[in-house]
Amino acid sequence: MNAGIVLIVVGLVVLGAANAGWWWLRGRSLRERVTSLTGQLATAMRNAFRLSGHVSELEAENASLKARNEMLAGLVGADAERAALQGSCADEARWL
Fold first, then answer.
1. Of 12, 54, 74, 95, which has fewest CB within 10 angstroms of its CB?
2. In terms of C-beta distances under 8 Å and separation of at least 24 residues, what long-range contacts does 51-56 make, across chains too?
3. How far apart are CA 11 and CA 7, in angstroms?
4. What is the DSSP string of 18-79?
5. Long-range contacts of 37-42 (CB under 8 A, 24+ apart)
6. pLDDT in tens, the chain (96 residues)
7. Which helix (H) or strand (E) element contains residue 10?
């Protein structure tokens, strides 16, 4: 009878140790996943911060390119008006 009780106690201890080991491994796995996800989140936040800086640079460059295009369009329009005026002056000179 004493051997049966000892066997039951040893079985319960082994079962408890196995259960504790399983929870420890599971907790370790969860900690590793949380650490990995935290690292990924930090990387994503750094990348977003860098991209926001690039976006403001790109917006400034885009604004300067728009201003340059408007200036060039104005010059092309002025050249077209001047050519039209020269053409009409030439037509008037022919009629005179």
1. 95
2. none
3. 6
4. HHHHHHHHHHHHHHHHHHHHHHHHHHHHHHHHHHHHHHHHHHHHHHHHHHHHHHHHHHHHHH
5. none
6. 577 777 788 888 888 888 887 777 777 777 787 778 788 888 888 888 787 777 778 888 888 888 888 887 777 776 666 766 666 655 555 555
7. helix 2-95
Q: Return the structure tokens found at 20.
A: 């504790």
Angle 65-67-69 from CA coordinates, rounded to 5°? 70
CA within 13 Å, CB half, 76? 6
Chain centre to alpha carbon of residue 51: 6
pTM: 0.41
